[in-house]
Amino acid sequence: MKNESQRTEVVIIGGGQAGLSISYYLSKYGISDQVILEKNKVAHSWREERWDSFCLVTPNFQCRLPDHPYDGEDPDGFMLKDEIVAYVDRFAQKVTAPIHEGVTVLSVRKLDDGFEVETTIGNWMCESVVSAVGSFHIPLRPPGFERIPSGIQQIFATDYRNPDQIPEGAVAIVGNGQSGCQIAEDLQLAGRQVHLYLGNAPRSPRQYRGKDAVAWLEEMGYYETCYDEHPDPEKARGGTNHYLTGRDGGREIDLRRFALDGMKLYGYLEEVTESGFRSRPDVKEKLDKADRSYLGIRQRIDEYIAANGIDAPEEPPYVPCWNPPSPEETELDFESANVSSVIWCLGFKPDFSFIELDIFDHRGMPHHKRGVTGESGLYFLGLPWLHTWGSSRFAGIAQDAEHIANMILKRRKRVEPWPEIQRMRAETIGAETA
Asked: Which InterPro entries match (predicted)?
């Protein structure tokens, strides 16, 4: 049964690390009249949309939720799925605002004096709304996916848990971002035949010259680079993350080595038919492009070490361990290859359709300046490169949340009191002068 409309100062949509972080700062700044509305449970995406062997790809020391840094014994390690959930749950215990779980936000509408947030348990009237649900909402599939025979299982990366859930036979994985590469490795280590279709994902070193590449980049100030300072800001927001892994203490992902171990690599998926996939003959092009990114990071680290006179061990030059045959294979026949499953790892598109305001671009992403929109009182948090590389990660969410909390506090001081407060004040003044 729905409750009657309620009033609060701030409605926060989303109970992940972004929503919890902004709530924490609002309370710290004295704005206690707030609610968090979570469609599922706190930390849902970590809890329910990651595979069993999932772990962070950035070191634990970059987990910096507000006043809640990583508190374990392995700052240079990579937390496993259950450890991540426990870390977020511990932070949630520090949040004093009411958290309503199992509540879906149906719409956000602008009113003359604020916003109306309609939900499955009633409506809230508020001065400010913070969307803290990220932007990874609807997983993507290519045109023609419906042609795949019904006997072949199709799942998204968010549905994958472990090799045992996949029917016997070969597996085609489409997309080689972080999820695609790590799921491909998980299946290959379990002895499954994997056919991996490549996109434009770059790759990164893991350990280089005596230290994790993430630690070098942080020391170099890379993660403090703001969106406006980035040499190609739009590419940054729309780009694919570098692939590497924290598995078994952390290591590089080299798809060429996967191929040496028996994984079949294909170029960009161009056509889906009832009998199989057809790809472009661009495996070498994709691998070379990923290697250029890898070598570029190494070069920047080398330059930093040289410029600062740092004593760091030398590394041998990179030499590719495998190259695709020429001509490249472009056809995959499901039946002859014994393909039983397809896992789609093509990323996501945003779905902010519940926000009934004209603030979105052609991709469905909000126009904003560091999370502040042109619609006074409406804010976004947890989006890729909202401000820096860490904006959608544990590394930078606190900085962004503090900024939005400050913006809400400043607006609170500027905005006239709500009509009912004005009325109450007028009645009080009238009574005092009568």
From this structure: Auxin_biosynth/cation_transpt, CHP04046_FMN-dependent, FAD/NAD-bd_sf
Q: Where among 291, 319, 344 does a domain terminate?
A: 344
- CA 258-262-266 angle, 5° bins: 70
- For residue 175, tell me if it sits in a domain: yes
Whole-angstrom distance, CA of residue 196 vs CA of residue 176: 7
Q: What is the domain count for the chain? A: 2
Q: How many CB atoms lie within 10 A of CB 59?
A: 21
Q: How far apart are CA 194 and CA 174, in angstroms?
A: 10
73 and 91 part of one domain: yes
Q: Quick one: pLDDT at residue 186?
A: 98
pLDDT digits (tens, 9 = 90+) for 333-360: 999 999 999 999 999 999 999 999 999 9
Is the same domain home to 310 and 371?
no
Same domain for 166 and 314, yes or no, is: yes
Report, in this order, helix, strand and coil percent for the chain, each rounded to 5.
35, 20, 45
Domain that holds residue 123: 6-137+350-425
Phi and psi dihedrals of 55, rounded to 5? -145, 165
pTM above 0.85, yes or no: yes
Tell me the torsion sign for CA atoms 324, 325, 326, 328: negative
Q: Using CA atoms, how far apart are residues 339 and 342, in angstroms rounded to an integer?
A: 8
SS3 348: strand
